[in-house]
Amino acid sequence: MTWLVFTVLSGIIVGGGLGVVTTRNVVHAALFLLVSLMGVAGFYVLLLSEFLAVVQIFIYVGAIVIVLLFGIMLTRSSEYPRIADNEQWPVAVIMSLGFFTLLGLALFTYPNVSDGRNDVAMAILGKSLFTDWALPFEIASILLLIALVGAVVLAREDRKSQ
Amino acid sequence: MITLVHFQIVSAALFSIGLYGVMARRSAILILMSIELMLNAVNINLVAVASFLDPDRFAGIIIAIFVITVAAAEIGLALAIVLRMFRNRATINVDHMDLMKW
Question: How high is the ipTM of this complex?
Fold first, then answer.
């Protein structure tokens, strides 16, 4: 049963990823990305970290893909859906296949001993996030604030040029 | 029995797909989507290692949460830059973004 779920989720993740990089339509690419991210959320459930699965669905599906769709609409790139891949795509295929082979060789040459998945209690996770990881947590909040202000400054209309 | 290697192989495949997308795509938004794929591959790897090998400290899961946070900040800023590029040059084809190319 777990094997079946794992195989289906792997197919969803890899198939969605291939759809993102092969489709010619930008909106279709965003929807393929959505499918792939949902598969990753399923992987998190399979790895017994349900909190991360919820976070994945909230932030990626609820925010990032929506923002990407806004970007597609605002740059009118859906009106020119056929921006072809550039002429170096055969090199890119060879490079990424070689990279995948290298990673696979490394993974199978040095296999990790593992005796099953561990459950993570959400209360311990939250306590650790606010004690051991409090400084990175605060830095992340400052980073989000800076990114927000920077995005507003970058994207607003230029008043002087009007 | 699913072991760590199976999750890592899927993660490596997803990362390679994202790598191909970054190298071969022309639209800036499609390149951003490929970067998201690569970040997700890294997250799968982190969570799998934390879940299989790290019984009580689960640092990998917390780092994955930070990766998701940084991805959210990154996508907002990057789309602001893409919008600004579109307003200035009327295209998001990255092959035309050669203003600073020597």
Answer: 0.89
Which are the contacts of A134, defined by CB distance < 8 A and separation ≥ 6? none
Q: What are the pLDDT digits (tens) for A124-161?
A: 888 888 888 899 999 999 999 999 999 999 888 776 65
Residues of chain A with confidence (pLDDT) below 70: 77-85, 111-118, 120, 159-162
Cβ of B20 within 8 Å of Cβ of A93? The answer is yes
Residue B33: its chain A contacts at CB < 8 A? 20, 29-30, 33, 68
Residues whose CB falls within 8 Å of the CB of residue A124, separated by 6 or more in sequence, listed in order = B58
Nearest to A85 among B18, B26, B48 (CB): B26
Q: What pLDDT was estimated at residue A114?
A: 63
Q: Which of B62, B43, B9 is nearest to A37 (CA)?
A: B43
B90 vs A: CB within 8 A: no
Q: How far apart are CA B61 and CA B71, in angstroms?
A: 15
CB atoms within 10 A of CB B89: 12
Per-residue confidence (pLDDT) for residue B1, from 0 to 100: 74
